[in-house]
Amino acid sequence: MNYLDEITVKGQDANPFFCLMGIRPVHFSEGEARLVMDVREDMKNGEGWLQGGMYTALGDEAIALAIYTLLTEGDTIATVSCTTNFIRGIQKGSIHADGEVIRKGRQMIYAEATISDAKDGNLLARCTASFLVRSKAGTG
């Protein structure tokens, strides 16, 4: 069973990191994915705001899931770079990340994710990333 099949069947349980962070897959298809995560007390920084790395981790996972919808069976990916621009903070509630593939080449994929407040849709952060494709044929 490939990763997308596992996500379809098992949901959050298909990915140990999803379980750790409480990330729930909502939608994924054709270069897009949406993940949702509740803000927990143990995810906050010393000032009571969601720690910035949580935005990056959620965005990275949403992007990766979006990319998997476009891969050939057996191909894998690795994050090369991920830059997060933080726009506003959040202290409680749920956030969602919408990942989208911007350009897919044979060996590199460029994608973005927006992280928003699930309650009102306010933009919280934006991630841009590049991923290396590791081809099952050994060419990537």
Task: Label the structural class.
Answer: alpha+beta
Enumerate the strands of the largest sheet in spatial order, edge to edge or round the barrel.
1-2-4-5-6-3
Question: How many DSSP H or I helices?
Answer: 3
Overall residue-averaged pLDDT value: 95
Radius of gyration from the alpha-carbon trace, in angstroms:
15 Å
Q: Report how far the terminal alpha carbons are from each other.
A: 22 Å
Question: Summarize this, please?
Answer:
By secondary structure, the protein is of the alpha+beta class. The protein has three helices and six strands, in the order H-H-E-E-H-E-E-E-E.
Please explain how this structure is put together.
The structure is a single chain. With 140 residues, the chain is α+β, with helices and mostly antiparallel strands. 22% of the residues lie in helices and 41% in strands. The protein has helices spanning 3-10, 16-21, 52-68; strands at 23-29, 32-38, 76-86, 94-104, 108-117, 123-134.
